[in-house]
Amino acid sequence: MKSDIEIALDANMKPIEDIAEMLALSKDDWEPYGHYKAKLSDGLIDKLSDRPDGKIIMTTSINPTPAGEGKSTVTVGLGQALNQLDHKAIIALREPSLGPTMGIKGGAAGGGYAQVIPMDEINLHFTGDIHAITTANNALSAFIDNHIHQGNALNLDPRRVEWKRVLDINDRALREVVVGLGGPVKGVPREDGFNITVASEIMAVLCLASNLQDLKQRLARMIVGYTYTKEPVTVQQLGMEGALTLLLKDAIKPNLVQTLENTPAIIHGGPFANIAHGCNSLMATKIAAKLGDYVVTESGFGADLGAEKFLDIKTRAGEFEPDAVVIVATIRALKMHGGLDKKELEQEDLSALEEGMGNLKKHMETIEQFGIPFVIAINRFPADTAAELEFLKTWCHTQGAEVSLVDVFTEGGKGGHDLAEKVVHLCESTTPALNWTYDLSDDIETKIRKVAQTIYGAEDIEITSKAKNQLRRFEKAGYGGLPICMAKTQYSLSDNPALLGRPSGFTITIREIRASVGAGFLVVLTGDVMTMPGLPKKPAALNMDVTKEGTIKGLF
After folding, report:
1. Whether the Cβ atoms of residue 98 and residue 196 lie closer than 8 Å to each other
2. Number of domains observed in the structure of the chain
3. How confident is the model over 480-507, as pLDDT tens digits?
4. Cα distance between residue 516 and residue 321, in whole Å
5. 412/463 same-domain check
6. In terms of pTM, does the model score above 0.90?
7. First vs last Cα of the chain: how many Å apart?
8. Average of pLDDT values for 6-29?
């Protein structure tokens, strides 16, 4: 079978105006970014406000493993399958970050014959949204340091500047840096650091803003640091919200592309789910719901991270409920959760598979707790044996769960027909009743404990003295009514990435809490999770090249 990039480069793409015409968009509703990409108007959501919403289907998965789960692939394939079955479906995805693309994880454009295209452009610079966020974030950093250098009228304590610079690449050497060295004319020396761009609060702000004016108001509320008397200093006090909004005026517009089968796809925003809230933009999801009968979207990583934040944060901000959830699992990943090494996955092992089912069971319980109907999608791999597939299907049936065998990677939309039919049935025959994990009126510690115990299955939480002080300060400042965004390893239900499967009796360590007031939530850092990842020993970039004719090689 051809590689992902070879399949993508051979695709029969329709001009973007044809995709816009499929959605009955007028020329005022979009603007072209080349032949196959477009920006949707930021006023489109208001224009469509009187239309009824289509059904929203959220895709999540078990905890990811090096064996692969294929959540984005299933998302794209399901959208293609719905259209093949004459349903008007639109896909809404996040934008890939260069960090994982050039590092180890890979992009987020699907795979095989279930991809969004132009895959190479989407996985690299796309329409420049992430670069605009990088620029806005670092412009704010520059203005913060300039304010301190030019007399510090706001009395901002250089030791308590919370705002970090960002870069859209994994670079562990930049986690902790010192700026302002070189004497008086070079600025005031202070400790600083870098996050990856997709962990920037500006990314979260853009993804949760409902329009350009809301974006500006959220940017104004962002806290950059604290005074010597520990009072918060905001972007509005610096007078920077107008300039930041100007830098983001195009980035806030959702991007329109297509799949290999020419299904419309809106790709916008890209916060990570392990260190941010892990969902594509609210504007993209809501526009897709107005333009299509079905919207297939996804949340990052497993249901313990992306789905929890989609349901506890994004639905509150957007005032909507998903109609169905797809939980993606693979035989390979479940066997790894059952104790097998990656090198052993090609061999049949029903014992390891059975042992790994605990991880899937916990994610099923999580979605059940939220009150949303779901179907389990078994993303098939070539080495899966008939006995393993039968075991998994039988196990799902004994749990009372709908299950579908999916092969969209090799068959495209055709390989997802059964899943599409089951999803449509769920959407049409059941009424979701979203049950959030916590009430906004709960205090911060109670919210954290509810997520840790209900979603992760933890026995308890342990809060460091630093986090306790932050918790008390944020409660006193009036931020206690905000949702929480847990920053946790994606590999385990616990905060220890080595604990696979369904661990029990563990404690979640809360080491730090950060106020993302502009985004509208508190970020709770657990364990050793990093907001600036590092590169692996052999980064994926080592395999990448471009020929003299301009043909991309080795992207995937």
Report:
1. no
2. 3
3. 999 999 999 999 999 999 999 999 999 9
4. 24
5. no
6. yes
7. 13
8. 94
